[in-house]
């Protein structure tokens, strides 16, 4: 009996140290084995994929390599290539300005949208990267007014007056807010409206103070138009989407009702329909003398459309938060606005990032739909003036490939940024 | 360890509940609750699950709304008036079963958030207070980590510190140790005992009967939304009166 007992007993006297895994289970060898040749089916798929890639390179390679950059028309390209496979990139080198800025933007003013684009990058930086100095937010705040002045031209007084109006309205709001949020909001709007009215009257006769050459909205086009619509609509639809999402969760039946009806209605209508409403139908509802800018109408429609989607994405994020977070915020005595701003939204928005980026990327690409209502954005330029010209009729791959490349670069950057942001915000260390 | 049951209890009323009733839809969760808590009292509320004990203390800081009866906390009548509710909540600290720390903020930020935004205390001062209480719960070295990096026991102690940073006059505990490993239960209970020794008014829903014996000056037993029995811990455990209490105690102490 005592014998068996001593065989069962065991006491470890020293703990084992960590060892390296065997050679076939580490490094590149392991990667290739597990990822490319782990089984028969996997091996076959690897070989097929390899074949397809090689085939693609072999066939597309000469097309790029023989590409012509300095002819004046497609027929000239064909004559030089003489039946050989090759691209006619000359359309890009000859028409790139139209592709970027549209057909009617005065060519000696191209520096203005370019400058606006550069300032936009500076203005976006402090919003996108929290570590940058906060003082840069001043640029962000001023950007909309400067960009408007740069793009549309005219006197600098117009954006200046609207800026002063916004600042005055903000101070009015701040001072009245303690009597109630709604009162503050009302006071802010009224003060801003008064400033705009007076400012407008004062500056009416000063059209040439600090004036740039005016460019009409119908002369905006090319990728610039896509950028303008995309940037404005995304930055507007995010706050509106947040408000709609919170409204939909509200206990107040009227606010909740308005939010639900708005979201469900907008989501149930195709964007194209809304754009047609913007371009054609809207005019019937306004008095005949009002002449609302077409770009403004389109911005309103696209913003409404995407804010409804963003609202639903954010609602998903709100629903994903444990109830305990609301309760903890409540139990500490935070009021509704504080709880939302400090506790709930930071977490809900973090959860919603993939969905929001999805909507944003989709919206950015949807801006090409304005070509349907005869605005000459990038796709509108290609479909209209360029393909219709005698020189370039028939150049499809090069033009649409270029458009695809521009959109891909932008959208891929947005997506990469969002993934970086998600990693930055990860605090659960799972 | 100090026997805190003998500690003085003032005759100043901290919480008074009269004929309080609550329903979840058709279900009558709390029925005619009458309870007066004096300042400095340490009350343990026990009972089977579904007996309404959590709901009771959640009514005290209006996380749940009661439909009938009267609750007065610290002299403030608890109505649906948001001003009163916020006033009460900033005086009443609460710890939850699942800690409910804010995962996107560091430990220090968790502790300073409410003092800064609700009490309008300057950031520097709020951080000093927070560090003071984090030292008290013995985790000052974790101040700049995120809740996800801490063990359950540490998280619950942070939650206690977070409540204390608001300098509450009353603390509510809703099963603070139910989600913890045995090793961690002790560290949280030690913190709570310390708090009791300093004379904090405490209402604690817990199944830790050892804690109740050591710290409480009153044990309340609830079943089916009613207070079935309440007594000093000595009497409650050694000489329970109602059959329901005897059954509960035999089950909970039986193993």
Automatic annotation (TrEMBL), chain A:
Keywords of this entry = Cell membrane, Membrane, Transmembrane, Transmembrane helix, Transport
User: Which chain regions cross the lipid bilayer?
Assistant: 43-65, 110-130, 180-203, 223-246, 258-286, 298-321, 342-363, 369-388, 395-415
- All copies of the ABC transmembrane type-1 domain together span 223-418
Primary site of residence: membrane
**Where does the source fall among the domains of life?**
Bacteria
UniProt-listed Pfam families: BPD_transp_1 (PF00528)
Alphabetical GO CC annotations of the entry are: ATP-binding cassette (ABC) transporter complex
State the membrane topology: Multi-pass membrane protein
Compartments, record wording: Cell inner membrane; Cell membrane
> What InterPro entries would the database entry show?
AA_ABC_transptr_permease_3TM, ArtM/GltK/GlnP/TcyL/YhdX-like, MetI-like, MetI-like_sf
- Extract one GO molecular function annotation from the record: transmembrane transporter activity
Is the Nucleotidyltransferase keyword given for this protein?
Answer: no
GO biological process: one example:
amino acid transport
Which PANTHER family has this protein been placed in? INNER MEMBRANE AMINO-ACID ABC TRANSPORTER PERMEASE PROTEIN YHDY, MEMBRANE COMPONENT OF AMINO ACID ABC TRANSPORTER
What family classification does the UniProt entry report for this protein?
Belongs to the binding-protein-dependent transport system permease family. HisMQ subfamily.
Q: What protein name is recorded for this chain? A: Amino acid ABC transporter permease
Q: What organism is the protein native to?
A: Donghicola mangrovi
Automatic annotation (TrEMBL), chain B:
Q: Which PROSITE patterns match?
A: ABC_TRANSPORTER_1, ABC_TRANSPORTER_2
Going by the UniProt record, its keywords in alphabetical order are:
ATP-binding, Nucleotide-binding, Transport
Family matches, as InterPro entries = AAA+_ATPase, ABC_ATPase_HisP-typ, ABC_transporter-like_ATP-bd, ABC_transporter-like_CS, MetN_ABC_transporter-like, P-loop_NTPase
Coiled coil (residue ranges)? none
Per its UniProt record, what SUPFAM superfamilies does this chain match?
P-loop containing nucleoside triphosphate hydrolases
Ranges of residues in domain ABC transporter: 15-249
Entries under Pfam families matching the protein: ABC_tran
Q: Does the keyword RNA-binding apply?
A: no
Q: Does the keyword Transport apply?
A: yes
Q: Name one GO molecular function term.
A: ABC-type amino acid transporter activity
| Domain of life of the source | Bacteria
State the family it belongs to.
Answer: Belongs to the ABC transporter superfamily.
For this protein, the record's PANTHER family field holds: AMINO ACID IMPORT ATP-BINDING PROTEIN, PHOSPHONATES IMPORT ATP-BINDING PROTEIN PHNC
Q: What is this protein called?
A: Amino acid ABC transporter ATP-binding protein
């Amino acid at each position: 009996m005592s014998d068996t007992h001593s065989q069962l007993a065991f006491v470890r006297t020293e703990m084992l140290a960590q060892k390296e895994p065997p050679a076939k289970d580490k490094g590149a060898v392991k990667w290739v084995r597990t990822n490319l040749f782990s089984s028969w089916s996997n091996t076959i798929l690897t070989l097929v994929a390899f074949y397809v890639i090689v085939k693609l390179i072999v066939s597309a390679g000469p097309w790029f390599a023989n590409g012509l950059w300095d002819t004046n028309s497609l027929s000239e390209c064909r004559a030089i290539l003489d039946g050989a496979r090759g691209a006619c990139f000359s359309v890009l080198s000859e028409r790139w300005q139209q592709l970027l800025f549209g057909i009617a933007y005065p060519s000696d003013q191209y520096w203005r949208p370019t400058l606006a684009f550069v300032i936009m990058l500076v203005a976006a930086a402090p919003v996108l990267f929290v570590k940058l100095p906060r003082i840069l937010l001043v640029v962000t705040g001023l950007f909309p007014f400067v960009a408007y002045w740069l793009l549309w031209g005219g006197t600098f007084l117009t954006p200046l007056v609207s800026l002063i109006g916004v600042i005055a309205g903000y101070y009015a709001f701040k001072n009245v807010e303690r009597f109630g949020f709604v009162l503050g909001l009302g006071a802010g709007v009224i003060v801003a409206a008064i400033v705009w009215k007076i400012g407008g009257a004062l500056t009416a006769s000063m059209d040439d103070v600090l004036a740039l050459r005016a460019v009409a909205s119908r002369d905006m086009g090319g990728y610039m138009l896509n950028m303008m619509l995309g940037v404005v609509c995304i930055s507007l639809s995010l706050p509106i989407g947040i408000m709609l999402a919170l409204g939909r969760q509200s206990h107040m039946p009227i606010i909740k009702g308005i939010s639900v009806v708005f979201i469900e209605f907008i989501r149930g209508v195709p964007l194209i329909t809304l754009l047609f409403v913007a371009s054609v139908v809207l005019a019937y509802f306004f008095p005949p003398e009002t002449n609302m800018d077409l770009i403004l109408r389109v911005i309103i429609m696209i913003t409404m459309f995407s804010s409804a989607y963003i609202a639903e994405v954010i609602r998903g994020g709100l629903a994903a938060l444990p109830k305990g977070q609301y309760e903890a915020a409540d139990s500490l005595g935070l009021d509704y606005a504080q709880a939302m701003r400090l506790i709930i939204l930071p977490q809900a928005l973090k959860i919603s990032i993939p969905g929001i980026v999805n909507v944003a990327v989709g919206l950015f690409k949807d801006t090409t739909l304005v070509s349907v209502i005869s605005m000459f954005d990038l796709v509108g330029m290609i479909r209209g003036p360029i393909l219709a010209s005698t020189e370039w009729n028939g150049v499809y791959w090069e033009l649409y490939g270029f458009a695809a490349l521009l959109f891909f670069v932008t959208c891929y950057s947005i997506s990469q940024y969002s993934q970086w942001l998600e990693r930055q915000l990860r605090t659960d260390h799972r | 360890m100090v026997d805190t049951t003998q500690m003085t209890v003032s005759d100043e009323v901290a919480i008074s509940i009269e004929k309080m009733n609550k329903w979840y839809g058709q279900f009558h969760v709390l029925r005619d609750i009458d309870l007066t808590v004096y300042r400095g009292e340490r009350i343990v509320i026990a009972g089977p699950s579904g007996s309404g004990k959590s709901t009771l203390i959640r009514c005290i800081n209006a996380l749940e709304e009661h439909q009938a009866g009267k609750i007065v906390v610290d002299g403030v009548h608890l109505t649906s008036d948001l001003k009163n509710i916020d006033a009460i909540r900033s005086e009443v600290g609460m710890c939850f079963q699942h800690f409910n720390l804010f995962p996107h903020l560091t430990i220090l930020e968790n502790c300073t958030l409410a003092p800064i935004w609700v009490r309008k205390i300057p950031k520097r001062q709020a951080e000093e207070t927070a560090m003071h209480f984090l030292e008290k719960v013995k985790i000052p070295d974790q101040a700049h980590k995120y809740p996800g990096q801490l063990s359950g026991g540490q998280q619950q102690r942070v939650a206690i510190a977070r409540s204390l940073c608001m300098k509450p006059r009353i603390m509510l505990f809703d099963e603070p140790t139910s989600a913890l490993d045995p090793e961690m239960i002790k560290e949280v209970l030690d913190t709570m005992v310390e708090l009791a020794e300093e004379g904090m008014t405490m209402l604690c829903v817990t199944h830790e009967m050892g804690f109740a014996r050591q710290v409480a000056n009153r044990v309340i037993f609830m079943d089916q939304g009613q207070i079935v029995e309440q007594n000093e811990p000595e009497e409650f455990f050694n000489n329970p009166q109602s059959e329901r209490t005897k059954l509960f105690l035999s089950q909970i102490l039986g193993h």
